[in-house]
Amino acid sequence: MKQTTAAAHKLIGCESCGLVNLRVRTIEQQRCTRCGAPLHLRRPDSVARSWALLLAAMILYIPANVLPIMHTQSLFGAQDDTIMSGILLFWNTGSYLIAMIIFVASFMVPMLKLGAMALLLITTQRRSAWRLRQRARLYRILEGIGRWSMLDVFVVTLTIALVRFNNLAVITPGPGAVAFGAVVVLTMLSTQQFDPRLMWDAVPPDYTDDE
């Protein structure tokens, strides 16, 4: 069955209230007839903004894992701990499940989100028709995970609490914790800025992806 788009019928949806408006020639100045929000066929500079946020997250991902996430001051001295040192501590003390949870939530998941978002942006910029349905599904997964992004920060906070739980100590967050929180927020914002409709602009409306 032949497919069609709203743009082909000169229609444009409002991102604020959802009302479908009739598109006029001067789309840059058009506003929603119901709520007055500016109307856009596609989010302005979507790819550029998403790339900027994603690159910032990638840069901060390195100090988030290298710099200490906490500084511990106790009767036995001072010590700095990173995410990986906390994981190794739990692993070496036999708390394998906790170590694996922290490794997945604080190391693997952020890295996979960065890689997946980069894949979507690269293929969209190249106007690739490769696995469009799978890429659209991947975006929906990233968008869904975004609602739970702060779980990564919670895991890091839990690590801070557990690593020195048995000691009489004063624990303060380190620069790594700030960088890690920034990675989570920037990745989430990058996903929100991306307009998935741009992926489908590279193919005709009657395109079918049977893979």
TrEMBL record:
GO terms for cellular component: plasma membrane. The chain crosses the membrane at residues 51-76, 96-123, 144-163, 169-189. It comes from Chitinasiproducens palmae. Its main location: membrane. It is found in: Cell inner membrane. The keyword Cell inner membrane applies. The keyword Metal-binding does not apply. This is Paraquat-inducible protein A. Keywords: Cell inner membrane, Cell membrane, Membrane, Transmembrane, Transmembrane helix. It comes from the Bacteria. InterPro entries: PqiA-like, PqiA-PqiB_transport. Pfam families: PqiA (PF04403).
